[in-house]
Amino acid sequence: MAPGVCPHISVGTFFKRSGSDTGFFLAVLGVIFVNIIIRFPVVPHEIGIDSFFIHYLGGVIASEGSIPWLLSPLSLFGVYPYSYPSGIPILLAVLHCFTGLEMEWIIYGFALCMGLLGIGTSYLLAGEFFQSRGLQLLFAFVFSLSPLALKFTIWTASTRGAFLMLLPLALWSLIRFCKEKSFVYLLVTISLYILLWSVHRLFILLIPITFLCMVLYLGKTHISPEKQQKHPAVFVGILFGAILLSVSIYILQFIELAELYQYSDTYWGLRYFSFLSLPVWVNYLVGNVIEIGARFVLLLPLAAAGLISFMRKEVVSVNEWFIICTTLFFLPFLGYSIQIYQILLPFICLLAVYGIVFLIKERRTQVAKVIVSLFILLLLLFSSLGTLIIRDTGADSSGFHNYAEEETVSVAEFLQEKVTIPGEIEGSLSLFIAAYSGRWAPMPEDLSCLIGDTADNDPIIEIKQVNLFNPHSWEGFVKYPFLVKERIACTYEAEYLIAGSGCCNAVPAETYQIYDNGLHTVRYNHW
């Protein structure tokens, strides 16, 4: 064959039709198929309050042809007043304008693509920890179908889903850069970090992870295989001590947190678990464990088995120390912020895969190993699916659904057709109606309004100070890293009131009753 001429490579040749390669190819197709099927819509409209917020922002961009809250370049990253990380709303708006599809179907396709993307990014990351492609695919299966991954990538525009599915790719490039000190990987890492920064404020928690990875690789000579083999008891003792210290701090923090949240009706107060006459902090600790357990389900005991397997290994690689150190670093702060356990998802899944391998190796016969493997995979799949159905597609005790019902969408469509002026929406369905109607409304981030006349009213802001021993400080900084000292005032000429059906309010002008289902009456009051 002449030089420079490429031979024709058929599909059959590419996959090398051997038994193992064919089996692996079928397994990949199986993981993709399960990911698609499990994300098939089972409710009439998109899921999640966060999704309606992002839906709303994307709708505003599409209708205005601009980003009204872009008061500063930092507004794109959500670190300026009246802003939110805008990468995903911009993407949804662009796709909506180019395709002409309804925004909620754009959101469904986006969520599905994010879920499938998670298979690829997690498979790539797993290559840094496992030499077997089977184990890499196992990690992709565990990660893409974990309860948290499904929660944020099943017909929802939650930006946390996009962040979590892209996170393994950023971790992969970070590890590659630390290993090879390559300018190319540095450039890729920086680009991915900027992208993640524009997606969600979880990016803040990626900073200590980056620092830990760099420190481990700079000091890797201190944990070389030779030293670990020479002093095995020392390294096992260090690992055991670190686990014990992290767990102890995690438990001790609840003495303070329980008193803080015991009578609170916030998300954290709901974690309180009243059981007989146990101390307040014990009840709160139990409630916290139950809450986090509901997010990971079987991944937690498998991750614990993974930690045990590390203590029994002769040599723990630098990458494996990275998993251990990151997990143990964040463990004491799990009760401080929901974002903590979310960013730990790839690390918990990696530990779970190590745990699965550890449990399978303990079996003596090949048949027993296959049975245990299938049993664990089925348990993981059904636990994820069960958690999804219970938490995201069901109704709470008051009958409230985490998705928009047909009646709510019909109200929004009426407003979109009949109302042409900005309006303020009040009531529990405010985000639902704002998203589907395309009406302007205040951004639901405890700020006074979406945007006002900024020409003469530049807001005065301060960056929040962080106190690592104050849960309010930690949670507040991750969600809103700035304080607005002077706010822009907004005025509205219309309101959408959602009141009980027995309510009859006198209004100063004409009232239009839009919808009454016997439980709620929705009225548009034109002032």
Number of strands: 6
- For the biggest β-sheet, the strand order reads 1-4-6-5
- Class derived from helix and strand content: mainly alpha
So how many helices? 21
Model description:
This protein has 527 residues and is mostly helical. The chain is built from 21 helices and six strands. The chain has helices at 11-14, 19-38, 49-64, 87-99, 103-126, 133-144, 147-153, 159-180, 183-199, 203-218, 225-230, 232-261, 280-296, 299-311, 318-330, 338-343, 345-361, 366-393, 406-418, 430-437, 471-479, and strands at residues 424-425, 460-463, 482-486, 494-500, 511-516, 520-526. The strands form two sheets. The chain has a four-stranded mixed sheet with strand order 1-4-6-5. A two-stranded antiparallel ribbon has the order 2-3. The radius of gyration is 26 Å and the shape is globular. Residues 1-19, 441-457, 487-494 and 500-510 have low confidence and may be disordered.
Task: Present the secondary structure layout.
Layout: H1 11-14, H2 19-38, H3 49-64, H4 87-99, H5 103-126, H6 133-144, H7 147-153, H8 159-180, H9 183-199, H10 203-218, H11 225-230, H12 232-261, H13 280-296, H14 299-311, H15 318-330, H16 338-343, H17 345-361, H18 366-393, H19 406-418, E1 424-425, H20 430-437, E2 460-463, H21 471-479, E3 482-486, E4 494-500, E5 511-516, E6 520-526
Parallel strand pairs: 1-4
Antiparallel strand pairs: 2-3, 4-6, 5-6
